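Sample entry (699 residues):
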Amino acid sequence: GHIKAISERAYRIENLKENMVYQFQVRASNVAGVGLPSLPSDKFKCEEWTIAVPGPPHDLKCSEIRDSSLVLLWKPPVYVGRSEVTGYYADIRKADADEEDWRSVNEKATANKYIKVTGLEHGMNYIFRLRAMNTAGVGKPSDSTEPITAETRPGTKEMIVDVDDDGIISLIFECADAGQDSKFIWSKNYESLIDSSRVSMETKGGKTRMIFNDPGKDDLGIYSCVVTETDGASSSYTIDEAELLRLLEISHDHKFPVVPLKSELAVELLEKGQVRFWLEAERLSGNAKCKFIFNDKEISNDEKYKIKVDQKTGLLEMFMEKLEDIDEGTFTVQLQDGKASNQSSLVLIGDLFKNLQNEAEFQRKEWLRKQGPHFVEYVGWEVTSDCNVLLKCKVANIKKETTIIWYKDDREIMFDDKHDFKDGVCTLLIQQFSKKDAGMYEIVLKDDRGRDSSTLRLLDKEFSEVICEVCRMAAQTATEVKVQSTEHGIRLYSFLNYFLEDLKIIWYHKETKLASTERVKNGVTGEQLWLQINEPTEKDQGTYTLELFDGKTGHKKLVDLSGKAFDEAFAEFQRLKQAAIAERNRARVIGGLPDVVTIQEGKSLNLTCNIWGDPVPSVSWLKNDKELLGDAHLILKFEAGKFATFTITEVGNTDSGKYSILVKNKYGTETGDFTVSVFMPEEEEEKVKVDTKKAAKKK
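Predicted structure, serialized as tokens:
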């Protein structure tokens, strides 16, 4: 036998003699004494065990029994075989099933001496067995457990994790069934924790707490607790890396609580260029303390700094009238509310500070500017639909006494104290905008409250942009290209609202750019863009394109001059050409005859007029619409095809009357009329009055 009692239910007996037969008995002991021995075991002959695989595991126990799961525990085999045990297989079957119904709980061997069995049916009885394996194979199964019912005992509580206000992490397990003699046995990965320095246990009544002394990665594992002297009350809690990290974060928050913030310390500029620093806490108690610190020095509420703290809303504010160079640095707010604290800093240095300072100065100037007449929108430009340039700005805070003056290159170009401010808009219209209008424009508002000005640079690039827009608007006003026949040929034309030299005009025939020649010319007359095709031929048929290039985009207008359109235009050209020839060459009286001739009786009358016509016209003279024939009294001549002479050698009273000259050729006829009035010497002094007005009638 052995001298000392053992707690294990397996014991290796040594110093036996080979081939001897032995029997064994076991006695249990407690504080009251030693009990009666068990019945003797079967007879065992002491022989060397030579099997290669491990013997069966033993001491199978079930713990943490629930409706659908339990944890199966066991002890390793006493005999390990020829090599160390490498794993275990757990088998399960329903208690009332046949031996053939054993099935594996785990497909892969587990190196642990415990396994969690899941997927059990509530209220069903199960039995379990274990098999050990080594490199030689799998050994015989262990003895089966007693039937175990899958059900959660009434009143069972699960183990919970807790982090107290001091950040201490612990596991807590309560058992209402714990009796006076019950003990709470803690284990890690189902091995005893009695000697562990990493945890401490506190047990009071039916509640036990296991405290982690210094939580870390060494504490990862499954923690379980079994209550003795109960019907198997037990529970476990798994702490993996993610759970440990979560608990450590909570612990840190409890050890070092912070005042939660809705927003960190920020800065903004107010209307007058004031600077507002602000921070908002989620909540503050009435005892909360707040400090504003600049460059490690606490700021007090004084002339420079105005500090406001609203503990109800958690809003902290600090105001400064302006930012000076000495204010460059780090601003910090420190909060203390009971154990909780927090702080938030804002670094204003370098460009960040300079930009904020400049913006604050700008805001202050803007506020001052707006106390008097000022611009809401500074002067800009737009091109109207009729291609004028409109300078435009929006003003506010105007009164009757406010003066508005426009300048160009520092010279006043307009003064108007009758501006209409109902819509708050001031305008300056520049018609027919061109290069002469380039320059610096300025508009000044002024009264007793202040002065404001706005400038617009229309030079170089800016001027080009305006010109380009004017050209674009002008190009968009172009009418469709029309066709007009003339005596010289065919003219294509389009009208614009406004033409300026910067608008480039290009004509194309089909896809070919047209150059200006003697026969095909293009040009601009007023607002008309034209292409003149002199003496057109069949080759001039096709599509013509007018392109107006505004500097960025080409605006195109097309006209089809082919087929019927060309034939009609060509026919009209021929007609006009012939009409022009006829007009140029028809017979006509081109000067020399008076309207009225007054002459004294007995005098000689001599009249000469110029004649034109090709071919040379025939010439006839008429008196009172009757043709005259020349004689000694009336001499009629037509010389060199140009000059017609009318002579009365001695005027008599009968020569008074209405006379006409009739010229005629194949292109037309024309007459020239004059009246001869004869008077007696005694009635009026001798004279001849000739009215130089010309008269001509076409027939």
